[in-house]
Amino acid sequence: MSRPSGADCPSPRRFDIDRRKGRKMVNGSHRLRAASPRRHILAACLLLSAAATPAVVAQPQADVQQRASRTVGAEDILGLTDVTETAISPDGRHIAYVTRQKIANGPGRSTIWIVAADGSSAPRRLTHGAMLDDSPQWSPAGDRIAFLSNRPNASLGGVAGVDIDPETKPSAKPGAGDPSRQLWLIALDGGEAQPLTALDRDIRRFRWSPDGQTIALIAPDPLTADAKAERAAKRDWVEVDAPRDLSRLWLLDLTSRHLRRIAVAGRAVSDLNWSPDGQRLAVRAAATTGLNDHFYHSELLVLDATTGSVERKLFDKVYSTGSWSPDGRRLAFIAPEANVVGIRAYVADVASGAVKQLGAKLDGTIRQVEWYRDNRTVLARTAVHSRDILYSVDVPTDRFRPLVAFDGRIDGFATAADGSIALTGDQPDRSADVWVYRHGALRLLTDVNPQIRSWALGKVEHVSWNSSRDGRPVYGVLVKPPAFVGGVPRKTVVLAHGGPHDNWSAGWQGSWMNWAHILASNGYVVLLPNPRGSSGQGTDFARATKGGWGSRDYQDVADGVDMLVARNIADPARIGIGGWSYGGFLSAWAVTHDSRFKTAIVGAAVTDPLTMALSTDTPDFVTAYFGLPPSALAQMDASSPLRAVDRVKVPVLVLHGEQDRRVPLAQGLGFYRGLQLLGKDARMVIYPRESHWISEFEHQRDMQRRVLAWFDAHL
């Protein structure tokens, strides 16, 4: 369970992942929300022509062995500035993007910047607060940018200059110490930002109408005086799975400043897109605000933009709202396979409801689809093995043509009317930057983290090997130490990714849960395998772990280790394994079923599928792989590292967030207690207040330092 991608355990952010790691896409407002961490990072199986050649290849990785030789540490990784979103102006001349910094002993900060798409001028800072400014969207005229911010607003009290329908008017302004995320407006040339709203609830999404006269936004109903009194009295019990605090769809008229709610009865709206003529809205909606419903039971609806009435339900379960074709007749979107494991891309005819799948046989996974320039072409951001490729797809013929083959991971993209494409992503020696594709060429526009050039980074390589079970190719990424010399076996760490329907790409390898650059800089060889169950090799590959976590994918990992030993790269006496979420599961599986590893780090891991299915906030994730108890008990037990804990013979470090609802704390604690009761060498660290994603600065620093120290001590 890493960043959500189809059947992953979803993250509470990047969909929010909505990334991240969500998330979102483009219509008349020409806006992208990256997915993240990375997101909504979702995938579908497509058809790739073996003879096709990318029109452009991104700049290759610099020769990292010629860099300065300062070893990478936790503070270096935490000091990086991330690029989380980008938006390209309608005329393609300017790109707005968001940078986010993690601040020690304080909240994070995000800032909006502007850069010329032709590279004629350096990036300039557009917003200047010390709060969270993000989600930039260009006005259709391209002269203003609307954005969300939690900055203080002196004009609070209802809405700043806005008239709200009486029945939904807030009873009080937000508290001064608890600013909510509101809508602001700023001119392209900068100056003071002006508040557009001052609701007492966070605004979660918004979109400009094509004529620039209205902004549609998503926010829960304002709290009534009675609701606030109940909370203050701590009468705040929660009925599990009951609809509550539903997010609503609102229309803000920018001339009259009237804010009107158009509710979708009994549904929580999570995203929206205007049709090109401004007459309809495509929305993603679910019965509750719960993550399980959001990810696995969201419908794609088409609404009348004036009345809010539902004109058509286009699809039962979707992962994205949908991108409108220029003529407004079709929507492109991504959705789960029928039983959740795997993802598909579709184009739907709005009038008839007829749906066409895009590329059912591609050896890869789609993460995003957007309509592009004309009524027959969409762009598909796709993971293929350990690379990311942006395809141009001819919808009538289902032909995929590589447009940009990126040396790293593309986090997201956005398009302009002139065909320009803004991309955010990372590469082996760049943790986050902005590129533009125009006139057949890809151009780097930013240098967000120049300090990286002084670091001693390992060399990142694509690598592959053949399965010992059936001979099929398995792909991954190898990171060698900066001073690596062939023929001298090194201490080695295998890092397993989350998901399992996620993948490692040959991009930047440093974050709080990806320890490859820190380990390599400190002398380790690091293998990042994409075993069966991963994204990047089509639906059949993704579904290969159904009914058998560990038993059906771990051998691919072991074969990768054998390949490194055979090539005299890995020292067989000094090999460890670690990972987060599903990566933690594979680490626990490895030391309960194999003796080749000398130690393991088990992070936020599922260690018992049965109790996981009964306690997680996304039960459909587990049951999609195993089925429902009690009929699935045998398969669940067979995939439980906890039930084989007596076989562990090496030191194990267990890491977990205290408030993790995705993989509840009991999963990690049960594995640790089992080891401890049997007298095994085990340690456990619990991070207070943390969910499935560790977010606090000091906790992230401790984790990275602890990981390096643990492997140093045991390898």
From TrEMBL:
Keywords: Hydrolase, Protease, Serine protease. This is S9 family peptidase. InterPro entries: 6-blade_b-propeller_TolB-like, AB_hydrolase_fold, Peptidase_S9_cat, WD40, WD40/YVTN_repeat-like_dom_sf. It holds the Pfam family Peptidase_S9. SUPFAM superfamilies: alpha/beta-Hydrolases, DPP6 N-terminal domain-like. PANTHER family: DIPEPTIDYL PEPTIDASE FAMILY MEMBER 6, SERINE PEPTIDASE S9 FAMILY MEMBER. One of its GO terms (biological process) is proteolysis.
